[in-house]
Amino acid sequence: EYGFDVPRPLWSEQDPALWWDGAVAAIRSVLESSGVAGSDVVAIGLTGQMHGAVLLDAAGAVLRPAILWNDQRTGAECDAIREAVGPERLIEITGNDALTGFTAPKLVWVRDHEPDVWRRIAHVLLPKDYLRLRLTGEYALDKADGAGTLLFDLAARDWSGEVLAALRIDPAWLPRTWEGPEVTGTVTADAGSATGLRPGTPVVAGGGDQAANAVGVGAVRTGTVALSLGTSGVIFATTDRPIHEPRGIVHAFCHAVPGRWHMMSVMLSAAGSLRWFRDKLATGTEYA
After folding, report:
1. Strand partners, 158
2. What is the pLDDT of residues 15-57, one digit of tens each?
3. Which residues, including other chains, have CB under 8 Å from residue 234's CB and lie 6 or more apart?
4. Cβ–Cβ < 8 Å for 67, 52
5. Which residues form the catalytic set?
6. pLDDT for res 271
7. Beta-carbon count within 10 A of 180 CB
8. How confident is the model at residue 287 (pLDDT cuts 50, 70, 90)?
9. 117-134: average pLDDT
10. How far apart are CA 190 and CA 263, in angstroms?
11. pLDDT value at 1 more than 90
């Protein structure tokens, strides 16, 4: 567990360097505790928190703390997105209404409130894909996580030129998108030295935390549903075609599995509420 910052009410931010330091420590710990040599690892898959906004300059340096999935500052920006694209058209293209958790409202907020940062942006990544950049030197994004930005054409499984144009977001900032099992790069010499992994080890696209969780529990066929209780709570249902709820009440995203999509219902606090209850009323007590 590591911290995040709340510099103002409703804000939630994190330094991406924490993720890299955590990944390096975790990889080294796994290799040491398992007795497996880095040279025996045949491939790396990536997953992580969805919807965050990691803004980088042309040299790949972080421009500001990442704005996280649970940041709630962007209510006005969601209204602006609906107006710019059209509320029905937005759901028709992306499968989703404009909600504060998604990446697009965060970018619109930076556009309108931090113009100095906006002018310096050269790359936009999601959290796990910042780790990919540190591992491989490549800018890449899987289609499942991409669909959670509110900038994706759900049916086409790629960026929506119409939405990007409406929001004045430069398409050049956005990385190429890949299906979950596709190789997006290999571990660099520097990353190998830091982690203990073998340079040249393939790194596949992977998926956001919920899509990867669904793969792990077998929710990859139509009619299979997964329930996940973490900080947030999620119900995840796999589909074999891009379908969406006309009012955007349920999320619709691409799956990490090629040729699959999914619908997802989310509440922002599930086990997080249980933690609050424990910490306030039974400090130090085990959850059981």
Report:
1. 153
2. 999 999 999 999 999 999 999 999 999 999 999 999 999 999 9
3. 210, 226, 227, 228, 264, 265, 266
4. yes
5. 209
6. 87
7. 25
8. confident
9. 98
10. 39
11. no
Helices (H), 35-178: 75-85, 87-94, 103-113, 115-120, 127-136, 143-146, 161-167
Distance (Å, whole) CA 76 – CA 69 = 16
Check pLDDT > 90 for residue 268.
Answer: no
Which amino acid is located at 134 in the chain? Answer: R
Query: Position 185: which residue type?
Result: G
The whole model's pTM is what?
A: 0.91
Residues in the chain: 288
Tell me how far apart the alpha carbons of residues 60 and 262 are, in angstroms, rounded to a whole number.
32
In this predicted structure, the answer to whether residue 243 has a pLDDT above a threshold of 80 is yes
Q: Which two tokens stand for residue 168?
A: 């004045």
pLDDT in tens, 94-104: 999 999 999 99
State CA 92 to chain mean position distance. 22
| Euclidean distance between CA atoms 250 and 235, whole angstroms | 10
Token pair recorded at residue 78:
């969601």
Please, what is the end-to-end C-alpha distance for the chain in angstroms?
A: 19
Does residue 90 contact residue 82 with C-beta atoms inside 8 Å? yes
pLDDT at 229 (0 to 100): 86
CA distance 248 to 237: 15
φ, ψ dihedrals at 164, nearest 5°: -60, -45
Choose among 241, 189, 192, 234: nearest CA to 211.
234
**Amino acid identity, residue 162?**
E
β-bridge mates for residue 142, sequence order: 178
Reply yes or no on whether the pLDDT at 231 is more than 90.
Answer: no
29/24 Cα distance (integer angstroms): 8
Give pLDDT, residue 156.
97
What 8-state DSSP symbol labels residue 70? T
